[in-house]
Amino acid sequence: MNGADAPACGGQGGGSAPAPPEYFDQDEGDDRSRVDGYAFAMHQDDTRAILDRLAVAEPDLRVKGKKTPYLAVNGNMFAFVDPEAALCLRFAEADRAALAAEFGVGPVIQHNAVMRGYLAIPEAVIADAARLAALFGQSVAHARGLKPKPTRR
Predict the structure, then answer these.
(1) Is 88 helix (H, G, I), strand (E, B) or coil?
(2) Can you list the domains of the chain with their CATH numbers?
(3) Using CA atoms, how far apart are residues 79 and 118, in angstroms rounded to an integer?
(4) CB-CB contact of 52 with 18 (8 Å)
(5) How far, in Å, CA of 33 to CA of 5, rounded?
(6) What is the 3-state composition of the chain as percent helix, strand, coil, each rounded to the nearest 5?
(7) Tens digit of pLDDT for each residue in 6-46?
């Protein structure tokens, strides 16, 4: 897989792998690009729905944020949907580097800053439910091992 297969995340290249058909409404009026009847380039609502489904596996997690949906454990954010609708997960740096090389993706950049430890998950991996669940579990485990941040309220 090359970098062109990676989802857009903070200015990274556009995704080219078709997303799973069950994530999309295939109505005639839908404005997403299509290749062989499959939707391309996920919308933020689609990725939000995927994040919601992943969060259900962990009873103490709830998706927060309206404009930028995210998940956090002990005050540490570990998953979010960026404005380009990419699903970004946080990993230990060694794991992130290995996965970035495997997926052929660059760093996650938000507001002109590199988000250390985060990886934009390619649409081809999102389509593989078992692989996505395993990566999400790995990300949750990493987040639970981080030092808790104090609450601000």
Answers:
(1) strand
(2) 3-144 (3.90.1150)
(3) 8
(4) no
(5) 15
(6) 35, 15, 50
(7) 444 444 444 433 344 343 444 444 443 322 233 336 888 99
Residue 130, CA distances (Å) to 126, 127, 136 in order: 9, 9, 10
Find tokens 């944020």 and name the residue. Answer: 65
Residue 103 and residue 145: Cα distance in Å, rounded? 25
Which structure tokens are listed for 45?
């609502």
Cα torsion angle, 22, 72, 79, 83, sign: positive
- Summarised one tens digit per residue, pLDDT across range 109-149 is 999 999 999 999 999 999 999 999 999 999 999 999 999 98
> What is the CB neighbour count within 10 angstroms for residue 118?
25
